[in-house]
Design a protein that fits this description.
Blueprint: H1 3-15, E1 20-23, E2 31-34, E3 39-42, H2 49-60, H3 75-94, H4 102-109, H5 113-142, H6 145-156, H7 167-173, H8 181-192
Parallel strand pairs: 1-3
Antiparallel strand pairs: 2-3
Helix pairs in contact: 1-2, 2-3, 3-5, 6-8
C-alpha cells in the first residue's frame, strides 16, 4: 500500500464515523476535525497518513476539547499520536510489513520517526516477550534429556581442555531458555563424573 492508497483508506475509515470530509488547497493546516459538527477539513498538499490517523483517533475517542496541534502535555494529543502509530502499524503489518522494514513504514506514513520507533519497538518487544512466555512450557516439554545430552556433547567437542563450564553460555549458544539451567547442570555433572 503506497502513501496515497493509505490516505484514501484512512479517509474511508473516517467516513464510517459519519464525518463529512472537505478538501481545501488553501487550508493553512494539514488537517483538523470538529467532532461536534462532524466535519474534517484537510489540505491535500500537506496531508499525511499519520495526521489522518491522529484525527481518526480523536473521532473514535470523541475528543471535543483539545489543545494545539503539537501540545504534548495534553493527554488527548498524546493518546491520539500513540493510537495513530499503532493503527498505522497494524495496517502496515496486515499488508506484509514488519519491523525489518521500519524505515518504509515511517516513509509511507510520515509518522515522527522517534515517536514511531519508541511505540512500535515497545509493542514489538512486549509481544515477543508474551509469545515466549506463552510457549515456554511447550518448549520445556519438547526438549528431553537425550536432546540435552546431544547438545552438551556437541558443545564440549569444541574444546581441547575444559577447566570450567559456563552453563549460561552453553544455553545461549544453543538458543535454549535459561529455564533449562538445572537440567543442563545435571547432565554436565553426569558427563564429567562429578558429584
Amino acid at each position: 500500500m503506497n502513501k496515497q492508497e493509505l490516505i484514501e483508506y484512512l479517509l474511508l475509515e473516517m467516513e464510517k464515523y459519519n464525518i463529512h470530509i472537505t478538501c481545501d488547497d488553501c487550508f493553512p493546516k494539514n488537517a483538523m476535525v470538529n467532532i461536534k459538527r462532524k466535519l474534517m477539513i484537510y489540505n491535500p498538499t500537506k496531508i499525511s497518513a499519520f495526521k489522518i490517523a491522529h484525527e481518526l483517533s480523536h473521532v473514535i475517542n470523541k475528543d471535543i476539547c483539545r489543545g494545539s496541534e503539537n501540545d504534548t502535555t495534553n493527554p488527548q494529543e498524546v493518546r491520539a499520536n500513540r493510537e495513530a502509530v499503532l493503527l498505522l502499524w497494524e495496517i502496515f503489518e496486515a499488508n506484509g510489513g514488519n519491523y525489518e522494514y521500519f524505515n518504509v513504514f515511517v516513509n509511507t506514513t510520515e509518522a515522527p520517526f522517534e515517536l514511531a520507533e519508541l511505540i512500535v519497538k515497545k509493542e514489538y518487544l512486549e509481544m515477543h516477550d508474551a509469545l515466549n512466555e506463552i510457549f515456554e512450557d511447550e518448549i520445556q516439554i519438547k526438549i528431553n534429556k537425550q536432546e540435552m545430552h546431544e547438545y552438551i556433547v556437541d558443545y564440549i567437542s569444541y574444546f581441547d581442555v575444559i577447566e570450567t563450564v559456563s552453563i549460561y553460555e552453553f544455553l545461549d549458544r544453543y538458543h535454549l531458555s535459561h529455564n533449562f539451567y538445572d537440567m543442563a547442570k545435571k547432565e554436565f555433572h553426569q558427563l564429567f563424573g562429578a558429584d
